[in-house]
Amino acid sequence: MTADDLVAAFTRVLRATEEAQPELDRLDALAGDGDHGVTMVLGWRAVVAALDAAPPASPGAALRTAADAFASVGGTAGPLWGTAFLRAARTLGAGAEADETLLAAAAAAAVDGMRQRGRCAEGDRTVVDAMAPAAAALAAGGGLTAAAAAARAGADATAQMTPRHGRAARAPERVRGSPDAGARAAAVFWSALAD
Fold first, then answer.
1. Are 85 and 66 in contact (CB under 8 A)?
2. What are phi and psi of 120, to 5 degrees?
3. Which end of the chain, C or N, has fewer beta carbons within 10 A?
4. Strand (E) or helix (H) holding 12
5. Residue 91 CA to chain centroid, in angstroms?
6. How far is CA 136 from the centre of its chain?
C-alpha cells in the first residue's frame, strides 16, 4: 500500500460513512445524543481535506495527517480515531510502501491506542469490538476482505453485549438488540478499505 492508495481508501471511507450517517445517528440516539454519524462524517471530511491540501509522501505520513485532522473534530470519536491513526503511523514509519505484515502491525497498534485512550476492552460494547477482530484477521493473513468481514461480525455481536462505557452503560435496556454505533462505524471503515 502506498500513500496514494491510502488517500484513495480514505476517500472511499468518507463516501461510505456519509451513506451510513443516518444509521449511525439512529444507533447513537438509542442511548446517546444521536450525533455519532455526524461526528464521523466531519472527521473523515477533515481527513480527506487535509490530505488533499498536503499530499503525503508515505502511508505513515498519511496516517499522521489523518490523526491530526480527525482528532480536531472532538467528541469521543475524535480522540479515539486520532490516537488510533497516530499509533498506526508510528508503526509504519517513513517507508514509501507498507506490505500486509506491516499493515497488520499498524492495525494492532491502532487497536491498542483505542483501548488505552478509551479505557476499554473487547466485550465492553465499543468500537474496539469491531476494530480488534479486523486487526486479528489481518494478522492471520486474511487480507482486507477478511478484516472487513471480521469487523462486521464484531459490530453485529455488540447488539447482545452489555455496555460498560458512555451513556449506553446508564441505559443498557435501550440499546440491547442494536449494534453499537462506534463499532458499526468501524465496520463501515473496514468495508470501504476492502473495496
1. yes
2. -135, 165
3. C
4. helix 3-29
5. 17
6. 14
Domain residue limits, the chain? 3-194
Q: For cell 488533499, what's the residue?
A: 52
Q: How many helices (H) and strands (E) does the chain have?
A: 9, 0
Distance CA 52, CA 40 (A): 18
Contact 185, 40 (CB under 8 A): yes
Tell me how far apart the terminal alpha carbons of the chain are, to the nearest angstrom: 14
Give how far Cα 93 sits from Cα of 47, 50, 98, 102, 159, Å.
Answer: 19, 19, 9, 10, 36
What secondary structure letter does DSSP report for 162? P
What is the distance between the alpha carbons of residues 45 and 38, in angstroms, rounded to a whole number?
A: 11
Indicate the CATH number for domain 3-194: 1.25.40.340
Per-residue pLDDT of the chain (195 residues; tens, 9 = 90+): 999 999 999 999 999 999 999 999 999 999 888 999 999 999 999 999 999 999 999 999 999 999 999 999 988 899 999 999 999 999 999 999 999 999 999 999 999 999 999 999 999 999 999 999 999 999 999 999 999 999 999 999 999 999 888 778 888 888 889 999 999 999 999 999 998
> Quick one: pLDDT at residue 90?
97
**Residue partners of 7: CB distance under 8 A and separation at least 6:** 48, 51, 55, 56, 62
